[in-house]
Amino acid sequence: MDNEKEVQQLKNRLRDLAEKSFRQNLFTFTGFLGLSGLDVFRQIERELSYAGYTLFGGAEETDRKVIRFGNADEMGYEMDFPIACIHIRPPAAKFAEALSHRDFLGALMNLGIERSALGDIRVGDREAYLFCLEPMAEFICEQLTQVKHTPVKCSLVEAAQEVPREEPELVTVQAASLRADAVIAKVYNKSRESCLELFREQKVYVDGRLCENNSRQLKAGETVNVRGFGKFEVLGDPRETRKGRKALKIAVYR
């Protein structure tokens, strides 16, 4: 979050939604929360546990998620998350530009849509799948007609059936240690000093929690998100090279 006031406002909003769900025996929902918003939730997670909660972003392994407060077993009924999935694609792919995540997000923000209404955008070959709050789906399908200079069409799809899973790039990196800054430097080919700046700017998250300790030792199975660069997962325990360095297998999601 940008400042302490925004953090406190989000905490109060989460408390209000949890209290409303518990007292009125109904499900309540946040908008989509990014890494910083989810970290704020983690800070008061125990405090809110009395209401019950579930996190979901529309598919497996999404970064942006909606929090649903309410315990289905105790309430005696179930309610789906109000998340829709939109397939965005050009009518003639062979004439389309190569479009990035930033291109799709920029086109959506130009429509005046709040970021909290938008979830992950999974970009493929000149197409994308967007998760959004259901009330915005019809508006997006009608209004999003162009991304950069490329005309596009939008259609609602069943996320579980049609959205492709993210396929990581498997790489092996060698670092002096398992320190978070050392591994990040190798994965993204950055200097240690520039990596320290990422920590100072609160852009590094480990398993969804803000990491401000650049010397934190990474472990097998942990996922590291670096805002502006992507994320990677540490696969298995490291192998020590003849020169005493740590050889790590990494799954990199661009």
Order of strands in the sheet with the most strands? 10-15-14-13-11-12
Number of helix segments? 9
End-to-end C-alpha gap: 23 Å
| CATH structural class of the largest domain | Alpha Beta
Average pLDDT for all residues: 93
Envelope shape? globular
Largest sheet, strands/sense/barrel: 6 strands, antiparallel
Low-confidence stretches: none
Instruction: Name the beta content range.
Output: 25-35%
Considering the protein shown, what is the CATH homologous superfamily of the largest domain? RNA-binding S4 domain
Number of domains: 3
How helix-rich are the residues, as a percent range?
25-40%
Which structural category fits the helices and strands? alpha+beta
CATH topology of the largest domain: Structural Genomics Hypothetical 15.5 Kd Protein In mrcA-pckA Intergenic Region, Chain A
Order of helices and strands: HEHHEEHEHEEHEEEHEHHEEEEE
Tell me what the CATH architecture of the largest domain is: Roll
